[in-house]
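Notebook p. 47: complex prediction with glycine.
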Amino acid sequence: MNILLLGSGGREHAMAHKIAGSPLCGKLFIAPGNAGTAAVGENVKLNPESFEAVASFVLTHRVEMVVVGPEAPLVAGIVDHFAETPALRNVLVVGPTREGAQLEGSKDFAKAFMARHGIPTARYRTFTAATLAEGERFLEGLKAPYVLKADGLAAGKGVLIENDLATAKAHLKEMLGGMFGRASDSVVVEEYLDGIELSVFVLTDGVHYLLLPEAKDYKRIGEGDRGLNTGGMGSVSPVPFADKAFMKKVEDRIVKPTVRGLREEKIGYRGFLFLGLMNCGGDPYVIEYNVRMGDPETESVFPRIKSDVVELLEHTCRGTLNECRLEVDPRTAACVMMVAKGYPESYRKGDAIDLGQDAEGVQVFHCGTRLDEEGRLLTNGGRVVCATALAPSLPEALLKSYNRTHSIRWDGRYLRLDIGQDLLKLMQEGE
Ligand code: AMP
Ligand code: GLY
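Predicted complex, structure tokens below:
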């Protein structure tokens, strides 16, 4: 079948690579894609949020399945648009309905959903400009640090964590005054959870589900996880502390009640579900839901999936995921991200990239890249490329990934040198 993948990052390159490798895949189109996806399929100049343009492309190119990489088209209701348009009704679209996408699109919706279904998460309340005074009192009743979250999508920047009560109060007021535009018209104030984060991925058809490999990502720009938040500077899968006992708690306390809750509330959901979790002394708590795969988690999760992903996605869309088995590579995947100088603040685009030599067992995924008219590879984003190695152990996977990054060059490249080091330390302490 012909498949259209929406998105343009490393997540989409890693997905495109797997999809193109499936015998079930006919033509693969990626919109808008990057220089990496152009090598495994055909890039199409389409805005994923322009549903009319996507629909017309789907019809003229006989696309039978649309896979949505980022959250924005899902939150805007691309699944509903296809379901409600007679000519598009038979096209399979991987993702939740607009209502399901509210799990990511509205923090308040997600928290209320968790409260209704008894899913462990930080204690919270939601405030608006009209209830600012109550919000300040609620903050006074919490212990530092204070967590403030813009309700709506704020390009990954809508969460503030403050150590000091006065600053937290001032920021609550600023947020409600439009610090993140309409996204912070409502603000969730919640308890701080102390622990280690991990990302758990679920594929669900709304009734059945499969647990995909989990991963850990490295969010901040600086080593030791310091400095500004980024889209993610690397990832590792599996996560050593996510052992059988921990993952059973995740499944029983979070995955099952979430899928059951969606079904009970008749919220259509056929796609990926990303659980951002905190491991607090061995117990998992939900920090956030995302309604898509993570980036750069996909770059370490997808290389470990041995099953045919197109088959999995087809069963997801048809509601027959119970007929599928997931086969996972037991090896460790380590992904190291390389970014443009200045990222995540202002950075330059258009620098020529030398990708160096291929290495066995290492894949290079493109994130922000493009080809110019002469076919030269140029930087085209903050996160530029990443290297993912698969190896029998975490130290070996890290060594292979880092070795591969040495030969990838452009003017001003930057990478963190400590990806996975926290996990190695934990493993040593556990021995
Ligand atoms: P979010 O956008 O919800 O993923 O939040 C961004 C980051 O803020 C998360 O990845 C966590 O590192 C941190 N965070 C969010 N909520 C909490 C919380 N309740 N306690 C501790 N850290 C949090
Ligand atoms: N790496 C975190 C995210 O994709 O949101």
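Notes: The longest strand covers residues 269-280. Residues 244-264 form the longest helix (21 residues).
Next step: compare against the earlier run before touching the bench.
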